[in-house]
Write a structure and sequence with these properties.
- The protein has 442 residues and is α+β, with helices and mostly antiparallel strands.
- The protein has 2 domains: 2-56; 92-441, Porin, CATH 2.40.160.10.
- It is built from 4 helices and 20 strands.
- A 16-stranded antiparallel beta barrel has the order 2-4-5-6-7-8-9-10-11-12-13-16-17-18-19-20. It has a two-stranded antiparallel sheet with strand order 14-15.
- The longest helix has 37 residues, at 21-57.
Protein backbone atom coordinates (compact mmCIF):
# COMPACT_ATOMS: atom_id res chain seq x y z
CA UNK A 1 0.00 0.00 0.00
CA UNK A 2 2.79 2.35 0.96
CA UNK A 3 4.74 1.57 -2.23
CA UNK A 4 1.69 2.19 -4.48
CA UNK A 5 0.97 5.49 -2.79
CA UNK A 6 4.60 6.50 -3.28
CA UNK A 7 4.43 5.61 -7.00
CA UNK A 8 1.29 7.73 -7.42
CA UNK A 9 2.91 10.71 -5.74
CA UNK A 10 6.02 10.34 -7.90
CA UNK A 11 3.90 10.28 -11.03
CA UNK A 12 2.10 13.45 -10.00
CA UNK A 13 5.42 15.11 -9.14
CA UNK A 14 6.94 14.13 -12.51
CA UNK A 15 4.04 15.58 -14.38
CA UNK A 16 4.09 18.73 -12.34
CA UNK A 17 7.83 19.27 -12.78
CA UNK A 18 7.94 18.11 -16.35
CA UNK A 19 10.06 14.97 -15.63
CA UNK A 20 10.52 12.69 -18.67
CA UNK A 21 8.06 9.79 -18.93
CA UNK A 22 10.80 7.15 -19.48
CA UNK A 23 12.55 7.92 -16.16
CA UNK A 24 9.25 7.87 -14.33
CA UNK A 25 8.53 4.42 -15.78
CA UNK A 26 11.85 3.05 -14.54
CA UNK A 27 11.09 4.30 -11.02
CA UNK A 28 7.69 2.65 -11.08
CA UNK A 29 9.20 -0.70 -12.18
CA UNK A 30 11.69 -0.62 -9.30
CA UNK A 31 8.91 0.13 -6.83
CA UNK A 32 6.83 -2.77 -8.18
CA UNK A 33 9.83 -5.10 -7.76
CA UNK A 34 10.34 -3.94 -4.15
CA UNK A 35 6.66 -4.55 -3.41
CA UNK A 36 6.90 -8.12 -4.73
CA UNK A 37 9.98 -8.84 -2.58
CA UNK A 38 8.20 -7.41 0.46
CA UNK A 39 5.22 -9.74 -0.09
CA UNK A 40 7.53 -12.77 -0.37
CA UNK A 41 9.30 -11.78 2.85
CA UNK A 42 5.98 -11.45 4.72
CA UNK A 43 4.97 -14.93 3.51
CA UNK A 44 8.24 -16.42 4.80
CA UNK A 45 7.76 -14.74 8.20
CA UNK A 46 4.23 -16.11 8.46
CA UNK A 47 5.46 -19.63 7.60
CA UNK A 48 8.20 -19.41 10.23
CA UNK A 49 5.68 -18.38 12.88
CA UNK A 50 3.55 -21.43 12.10
CA UNK A 51 6.57 -23.75 12.37
CA UNK A 52 7.53 -22.27 15.74
CA UNK A 53 3.97 -22.69 17.03
CA UNK A 54 3.95 -26.34 16.01
CA UNK A 55 7.32 -26.98 17.64
CA UNK A 56 6.18 -25.46 20.96
CA UNK A 57 3.19 -27.81 21.05
CA UNK A 58 5.51 -30.84 20.88
CA UNK A 59 8.31 -29.48 23.11
CA UNK A 60 9.16 -30.94 26.53
CA UNK A 61 6.85 -29.80 29.36
CA UNK A 62 8.01 -27.59 32.19
CA UNK A 63 9.95 -29.58 34.83
CA UNK A 64 7.83 -30.75 37.75
CA UNK A 65 8.49 -29.75 41.37
CA UNK A 66 9.92 -33.21 42.07
CA UNK A 67 12.32 -32.89 39.12
CA UNK A 68 13.47 -29.49 40.31
CA UNK A 69 14.00 -30.99 43.81
CA UNK A 70 16.17 -33.72 42.30
CA UNK A 71 18.28 -31.12 40.52
CA UNK A 72 18.61 -29.12 43.73
CA UNK A 73 19.66 -32.23 45.68
CA UNK A 74 22.30 -32.96 43.05
CA UNK A 75 23.60 -29.41 43.40
CA UNK A 76 23.63 -29.81 47.18
CA UNK A 77 25.61 -33.03 46.80
CA UNK A 78 28.10 -31.19 44.60
CA UNK A 79 28.50 -28.51 47.25
CA UNK A 80 29.09 -31.25 49.83
CA UNK A 81 32.31 -32.13 48.02
CA UNK A 82 33.91 -28.91 49.22
CA UNK A 83 36.38 -29.66 51.96
CA UNK A 84 38.38 -27.71 54.52
CA UNK A 85 42.01 -28.72 54.84
CA UNK A 86 43.66 -29.03 58.28
CA UNK A 87 47.25 -28.22 59.22
CA UNK A 88 48.05 -31.90 58.57
CA UNK A 89 46.69 -31.51 55.01
CA UNK A 90 43.76 -33.83 55.76
CA UNK A 91 40.44 -32.85 54.11
CA UNK A 92 37.71 -32.23 56.69
CA UNK A 93 34.01 -31.67 55.98
CA UNK A 94 31.56 -29.87 58.26
CA UNK A 95 28.20 -31.57 58.79
CA UNK A 96 25.29 -31.54 61.23
CA UNK A 97 21.96 -29.80 61.68
CA UNK A 98 20.52 -26.71 63.32
CA UNK A 99 17.47 -28.08 65.15
CA UNK A 100 14.61 -26.09 66.66
CA UNK A 101 12.09 -27.84 68.93
CA UNK A 102 8.85 -26.52 70.40
CA UNK A 103 7.54 -29.06 72.93
CA UNK A 104 4.84 -29.69 75.49
CA UNK A 105 4.62 -32.28 78.30
CA UNK A 106 1.90 -33.35 80.69
CA UNK A 107 2.05 -33.20 84.49
CA UNK A 108 4.13 -36.36 84.77
CA UNK A 109 6.92 -35.05 82.57
CA UNK A 110 8.99 -33.88 85.53
CA UNK A 111 9.68 -30.44 83.93
CA UNK A 112 11.99 -32.20 81.41
CA UNK A 113 12.04 -31.67 77.66
CA UNK A 114 12.31 -35.39 76.90
CA UNK A 115 11.25 -37.46 79.94
CA UNK A 116 12.52 -41.05 79.90
CA UNK A 117 9.66 -42.24 82.11
CA UNK A 118 6.47 -40.80 83.53
CA UNK A 119 7.29 -39.40 86.95
CA UNK A 120 5.96 -41.07 90.08
CA UNK A 121 4.72 -37.79 91.60
CA UNK A 122 2.82 -35.53 89.17
CA UNK A 123 3.86 -31.89 89.01
CA UNK A 124 3.00 -29.07 86.64
CA UNK A 125 2.85 -29.36 82.86
CA UNK A 126 5.65 -27.68 80.94
CA UNK A 127 5.89 -26.10 77.50
CA UNK A 128 8.94 -24.59 75.87
CA UNK A 129 11.24 -24.21 72.89
CA UNK A 130 14.95 -24.80 72.41
CA UNK A 131 17.90 -25.15 70.05
CA UNK A 132 19.76 -27.41 72.52
CA UNK A 133 19.52 -30.45 70.26
CA UNK A 134 21.48 -28.79 67.45
CA UNK A 135 24.28 -31.12 66.30
CA UNK A 136 27.67 -30.11 64.89
CA UNK A 137 29.93 -32.67 63.24
CA UNK A 138 33.29 -33.03 61.53
CA UNK A 139 34.19 -35.87 59.18
CA UNK A 140 37.62 -36.55 57.75
CA UNK A 141 39.44 -39.01 55.52
CA UNK A 142 42.90 -39.70 56.85
CA UNK A 143 46.08 -40.81 55.11
CA UNK A 144 46.59 -44.24 53.55
CA UNK A 145 47.89 -46.97 55.86
CA UNK A 146 50.53 -49.68 55.34
CA UNK A 147 49.17 -52.77 53.60
CA UNK A 148 46.71 -50.85 51.44
CA UNK A 149 44.55 -49.62 54.30
CA UNK A 150 42.59 -46.39 54.60
CA UNK A 151 41.62 -44.29 57.61
CA UNK A 152 38.65 -42.07 58.39
CA UNK A 153 37.00 -40.50 61.39
CA UNK A 154 34.24 -38.30 62.70
CA UNK A 155 33.19 -36.35 65.76
CA UNK A 156 29.71 -35.03 66.68
CA UNK A 157 28.78 -32.53 69.38
CA UNK A 158 25.64 -30.81 70.67
CA UNK A 159 24.50 -28.32 73.32
CA UNK A 160 22.68 -30.75 75.61
CA UNK A 161 25.06 -30.32 78.55
CA UNK A 162 24.39 -27.92 81.39
CA UNK A 163 21.04 -26.47 82.40
CA UNK A 164 17.97 -26.47 80.16
CA UNK A 165 17.55 -22.69 80.54
CA UNK A 166 18.18 -20.59 77.38
CA UNK A 167 21.75 -19.29 77.02
CA UNK A 168 22.97 -21.72 79.69
CA UNK A 169 23.72 -24.81 77.59
CA UNK A 170 27.13 -26.47 77.47
CA UNK A 171 28.93 -27.95 74.48
CA UNK A 172 28.98 -31.75 74.76
CA UNK A 173 30.69 -34.60 72.94
CA UNK A 174 28.16 -37.09 71.54
CA UNK A 175 29.90 -39.50 69.18
CA UNK A 176 33.46 -39.86 67.93
CA UNK A 177 35.07 -42.60 65.86
CA UNK A 178 38.45 -43.33 64.30
CA UNK A 179 38.46 -46.27 61.85
CA UNK A 180 41.19 -48.08 59.93
CA UNK A 181 40.09 -50.37 57.09
CA UNK A 182 41.93 -53.02 55.10
CA UNK A 183 39.65 -54.48 52.41
CA UNK A 184 37.04 -56.40 54.49
CA UNK A 185 38.55 -55.74 57.95
CA UNK A 186 37.95 -52.59 60.01
CA UNK A 187 39.33 -51.61 63.43
CA UNK A 188 37.43 -48.79 65.17
CA UNK A 189 38.05 -46.87 68.37
CA UNK A 190 35.55 -44.30 69.49
CA UNK A 191 32.61 -43.21 71.59
CA UNK A 192 29.42 -44.77 70.26
CA UNK A 193 26.36 -46.89 71.03
CA UNK A 194 26.90 -50.43 72.33
CA UNK A 195 28.33 -52.74 69.67
CA UNK A 196 25.35 -55.10 69.95
CA UNK A 197 22.70 -52.32 69.65
CA UNK A 198 23.54 -49.92 66.78
CA UNK A 199 20.03 -49.15 65.52
CA UNK A 200 17.45 -46.67 66.81
CA UNK A 201 14.15 -45.08 65.71
CA UNK A 202 13.88 -42.02 63.46
CA UNK A 203 12.80 -38.82 65.18
CA UNK A 204 13.61 -35.11 65.43
CA UNK A 205 11.86 -34.79 68.80
CA UNK A 206 14.43 -36.66 70.90
CA UNK A 207 18.03 -36.12 69.80
CA UNK A 208 19.83 -34.95 72.95
CA UNK A 209 18.99 -38.34 74.45
CA UNK A 210 18.56 -41.33 72.15
CA UNK A 211 14.88 -42.06 71.38
CA UNK A 212 13.21 -44.73 73.57
CA UNK A 213 15.86 -44.40 76.27
CA UNK A 214 14.76 -46.64 79.13
CA UNK A 215 12.09 -48.14 76.87
CA UNK A 216 13.89 -50.75 74.79
CA UNK A 217 16.77 -48.84 73.18
CA UNK A 218 20.18 -49.61 74.70
CA UNK A 219 21.96 -46.44 73.74
CA UNK A 220 24.73 -45.26 76.10
CA UNK A 221 27.39 -43.33 74.13
CA UNK A 222 30.55 -44.70 75.72
CA UNK A 223 34.15 -45.45 74.69
CA UNK A 224 34.67 -48.71 72.81
CA UNK A 225 37.11 -50.59 70.60
CA UNK A 226 35.84 -53.08 68.03
CA UNK A 227 36.98 -55.19 65.10
CA UNK A 228 34.68 -55.83 62.12
CA UNK A 229 35.13 -58.53 59.50
CA UNK A 230 32.94 -58.54 56.40
CA UNK A 231 32.48 -62.10 55.07
CA UNK A 232 30.94 -62.07 51.60
CA UNK A 233 28.73 -64.92 50.37
CA UNK A 234 28.01 -63.15 47.07
CA UNK A 235 27.77 -59.71 45.52
CA UNK A 236 24.80 -58.72 47.72
CA UNK A 237 24.89 -61.22 50.59
CA UNK A 238 27.18 -61.83 53.52
CA UNK A 239 27.73 -61.28 57.23
CA UNK A 240 29.50 -58.48 59.09
CA UNK A 241 30.94 -59.90 62.31
CA UNK A 242 31.87 -57.40 65.05
CA UNK A 243 33.40 -57.96 68.46
CA UNK A 244 35.18 -55.76 70.98
CA UNK A 245 35.19 -54.02 74.35
CA UNK A 246 32.55 -51.50 75.45
CA UNK A 247 32.83 -49.35 78.59
CA UNK A 248 29.84 -49.76 80.92
CA UNK A 249 28.56 -46.83 82.98
CA UNK A 250 27.56 -48.35 86.33
CA UNK A 251 24.83 -46.95 88.58
CA UNK A 252 24.42 -47.50 92.32
CA UNK A 253 21.06 -48.77 93.69
CA UNK A 254 18.68 -46.02 94.73
CA UNK A 255 18.59 -47.27 98.34
CA UNK A 256 22.39 -47.25 98.79
CA UNK A 257 23.87 -44.91 101.41
CA UNK A 258 26.52 -42.39 100.41
CA UNK A 259 29.21 -44.61 101.94
CA UNK A 260 28.07 -47.65 99.98
CA UNK A 261 27.63 -45.64 96.77
CA UNK A 262 31.28 -44.63 97.01
CA UNK A 263 32.28 -48.31 96.70
CA UNK A 264 30.79 -48.57 93.21
CA UNK A 265 33.25 -49.15 90.38
CA UNK A 266 31.71 -46.61 88.02
CA UNK A 267 33.24 -47.84 84.78
CA UNK A 268 33.68 -51.47 83.78
CA UNK A 269 34.66 -53.18 80.51
CA UNK A 270 32.12 -55.37 78.73
CA UNK A 271 32.75 -57.88 75.98
CA UNK A 272 30.24 -57.50 73.16
CA UNK A 273 29.65 -58.99 69.74
CA UNK A 274 27.23 -58.78 66.84
CA UNK A 275 26.80 -60.81 63.63
CA UNK A 276 24.83 -58.99 60.95
CA UNK A 277 23.53 -61.22 58.13
CA UNK A 278 22.47 -59.17 55.09
CA UNK A 279 21.02 -59.78 51.63
CA UNK A 280 19.39 -57.78 48.84
CA UNK A 281 19.80 -54.58 46.88
CA UNK A 282 19.11 -50.95 47.74
CA UNK A 283 15.35 -51.10 47.01
CA UNK A 284 14.81 -54.53 48.59
CA UNK A 285 17.00 -55.34 51.54
CA UNK A 286 17.05 -57.63 54.57
CA UNK A 287 19.28 -57.71 57.68
CA UNK A 288 19.19 -59.76 60.86
CA UNK A 289 21.83 -59.54 63.59
CA UNK A 290 22.08 -61.57 66.82
CA UNK A 291 24.45 -60.24 69.48
CA UNK A 292 25.64 -60.55 73.06
CA UNK A 293 26.91 -58.54 76.04
CA UNK A 294 28.95 -59.94 78.95
CA UNK A 295 30.22 -57.93 81.95
CA UNK A 296 30.35 -57.69 85.76
CA UNK A 297 29.21 -54.87 88.07
CA UNK A 298 31.35 -54.34 91.20
CA UNK A 299 29.68 -52.83 94.26
CA UNK A 300 30.25 -53.10 98.02
CA UNK A 301 32.87 -55.80 97.52
CA UNK A 302 30.43 -57.94 95.51
CA UNK A 303 29.81 -58.70 91.84
CA UNK A 304 26.58 -58.75 89.87
CA UNK A 305 26.66 -60.31 86.39
CA UNK A 306 25.50 -58.41 83.34
CA UNK A 307 24.47 -60.84 80.58
CA UNK A 308 22.35 -59.90 77.58
CA UNK A 309 21.27 -61.65 74.40
CA UNK A 310 20.28 -59.21 71.65
CA UNK A 311 18.85 -59.25 68.15
CA UNK A 312 18.13 -56.46 65.69
CA UNK A 313 16.70 -56.37 62.18
CA UNK A 314 15.99 -54.26 59.12
CA UNK A 315 13.51 -55.26 56.40
CA UNK A 316 12.84 -53.25 53.22
CA UNK A 317 10.42 -55.19 50.97
CA UNK A 318 9.81 -52.21 48.69
CA UNK A 319 11.22 -48.74 48.10
CA UNK A 320 8.35 -47.09 50.02
CA UNK A 321 8.31 -49.35 53.12
CA UNK A 322 10.77 -50.23 55.92
CA UNK A 323 10.51 -52.18 59.17
CA UNK A 324 13.31 -52.30 61.76
CA UNK A 325 13.81 -52.83 65.46
CA UNK A 326 15.72 -54.56 68.25
CA UNK A 327 15.20 -56.96 71.16
CA UNK A 328 17.19 -57.89 74.28
CA UNK A 329 16.82 -60.26 77.21
CA UNK A 330 19.02 -61.03 80.20
CA UNK A 331 20.06 -59.31 83.42
CA UNK A 332 21.57 -56.01 84.53
CA UNK A 333 21.04 -53.81 81.46
CA UNK A 334 21.36 -50.40 83.17
CA UNK A 335 25.05 -49.98 82.35
CA UNK A 336 24.32 -50.02 78.59
CA UNK A 337 21.39 -47.58 78.60
CA UNK A 338 18.46 -49.44 80.17
CA UNK A 339 16.44 -48.29 83.18
CA UNK A 340 18.54 -47.12 86.11
CA UNK A 341 18.14 -50.31 88.16
CA UNK A 342 20.67 -52.85 86.94
CA UNK A 343 21.07 -54.58 90.28
CA UNK A 344 19.30 -54.36 93.64
CA UNK A 345 20.73 -53.93 97.14
CA UNK A 346 18.78 -56.22 99.47
CA UNK A 347 18.13 -55.42 103.19
CA UNK A 348 20.72 -58.03 104.18
CA UNK A 349 23.42 -56.16 102.21
CA UNK A 350 23.75 -58.58 99.29
CA UNK A 351 23.12 -57.58 95.68
CA UNK A 352 21.20 -59.36 92.91
CA UNK A 353 20.96 -58.52 89.18
CA UNK A 354 17.63 -57.35 87.80
CA UNK A 355 16.30 -59.67 85.08
CA UNK A 356 15.10 -57.70 82.08
CA UNK A 357 13.32 -58.01 78.73
CA UNK A 358 13.00 -55.15 76.26
CA UNK A 359 12.98 -53.97 72.69
CA UNK A 360 11.50 -51.63 70.12
CA UNK A 361 10.24 -51.60 66.53
CA UNK A 362 9.47 -49.01 63.87
CA UNK A 363 7.41 -48.99 60.70
CA UNK A 364 8.39 -46.37 58.11
CA UNK A 365 6.27 -45.42 55.09
CA UNK A 366 7.33 -43.07 52.28
CA UNK A 367 4.06 -41.84 50.65
CA UNK A 368 6.00 -39.36 48.48
CA UNK A 369 9.61 -38.45 47.84
CA UNK A 370 9.30 -35.61 50.34
CA UNK A 371 7.15 -37.13 53.12
CA UNK A 372 7.95 -39.96 55.52
CA UNK A 373 5.74 -41.43 58.26
CA UNK A 374 7.33 -43.13 61.27
CA UNK A 375 5.35 -45.24 63.77
CA UNK A 376 7.46 -46.66 66.58
CA UNK A 377 7.31 -47.95 70.12
CA UNK A 378 9.41 -49.71 72.72
CA UNK A 379 9.37 -51.13 76.23
CA UNK A 380 11.52 -52.44 79.04
CA UNK A 381 10.09 -54.83 81.60
CA UNK A 382 12.02 -55.72 84.77
CA UNK A 383 11.18 -58.73 86.94
CA UNK A 384 9.15 -57.62 89.94
CA UNK A 385 10.87 -60.01 92.38
CA UNK A 386 14.20 -58.22 91.75
CA UNK A 387 12.92 -54.69 92.41
CA UNK A 388 12.53 -52.24 95.27
CA UNK A 389 9.07 -50.72 95.94
CA UNK A 390 9.87 -47.43 94.13
CA UNK A 391 11.47 -49.09 91.08
CA UNK A 392 9.94 -49.15 87.60
CA UNK A 393 8.47 -52.53 86.70
CA UNK A 394 7.58 -51.68 83.10
CA UNK A 395 8.25 -48.63 80.93
CA UNK A 396 6.48 -48.25 77.58
CA UNK A 397 6.67 -45.47 74.99
CA UNK A 398 4.82 -45.36 71.69
CA UNK A 399 5.00 -42.53 69.17
CA UNK A 400 4.27 -41.38 65.65
CA UNK A 401 5.75 -38.59 63.58
CA UNK A 402 5.60 -37.00 60.15
CA UNK A 403 8.79 -35.63 58.59
CA UNK A 404 8.35 -33.40 55.52
CA UNK A 405 11.19 -32.23 53.30
CA UNK A 406 10.58 -28.53 52.63
CA UNK A 407 13.83 -28.40 50.64
CA UNK A 408 16.70 -30.85 50.11
CA UNK A 409 18.21 -29.81 53.44
CA UNK A 410 15.26 -28.34 55.38
CA UNK A 411 12.93 -30.65 57.33
CA UNK A 412 9.75 -30.00 59.29
CA UNK A 413 8.37 -32.61 61.69
CA UNK A 414 5.52 -33.11 64.13
CA UNK A 415 5.48 -35.92 66.71
CA UNK A 416 3.06 -37.19 69.35
CA UNK A 417 4.10 -39.76 71.96
CA UNK A 418 2.87 -41.24 75.22
CA UNK A 419 4.89 -42.70 78.07
CA UNK A 420 3.22 -45.38 80.20
CA UNK A 421 5.26 -46.23 83.29
CA UNK A 422 4.21 -48.91 85.79
CA UNK A 423 5.87 -48.75 89.22
CA UNK A 424 6.37 -51.85 91.38
CA UNK A 425 3.91 -50.67 94.06
CA UNK A 426 2.37 -47.37 92.94
CA UNK A 427 1.00 -48.52 89.61
CA UNK A 428 0.57 -46.69 86.29
CA UNK A 429 1.66 -43.13 85.44
CA UNK A 430 1.10 -41.46 82.04
CA UNK A 431 2.77 -38.59 80.24
CA UNK A 432 1.87 -37.15 76.83
CA UNK A 433 4.54 -35.43 74.76
CA UNK A 434 4.11 -33.16 71.70
CA UNK A 435 6.93 -31.81 69.58
CA UNK A 436 7.21 -29.54 66.54
CA UNK A 437 10.67 -29.49 64.94
CA UNK A 438 12.41 -27.64 62.12
CA UNK A 439 15.86 -28.84 61.07
CA UNK A 440 18.38 -27.26 58.70
CA UNK A 441 20.89 -29.87 57.52
CA UNK A 442 24.35 -28.87 56.43
Amino acid sequence: MFIRLTALLLGIAATAWGQPAAETQRILERLEKLEKQNQELMAEIQSLKQELAGASEHSAPEPTLAERMDVQEARTADLAQSKVETTQRIPVSLTGMVLFNAFSNGRSGGTLQNPVSAQLSPGSANTGATFRQTVLGLKFNGPDLPGGGTSRGSVYMDFWGGAAAPNNNLFRLRLATLSMTWKDTTITAGQDKPIMAPREPTTLAQVGLAPLSGAGNLWNWNPEVRVEQNIRFGTTTGVRAETGLFENTELAPSNASAALAATLEKYRPAWEGRFNFYAGSENRHFEFAPGFHVAQSHFAGQSAPSRLFTADWFVKPASFLEFNGAFFRGENAAATGGLRQGFTLLPNGSIIPVHVTGGWSQLTIFPTARLSVHLYGGFEGDRGADLLPNNVRRNLIYAGNLIYKLAPNILAAFEVSQNRTIYAVSGLRLNNHYDLAIAYLF
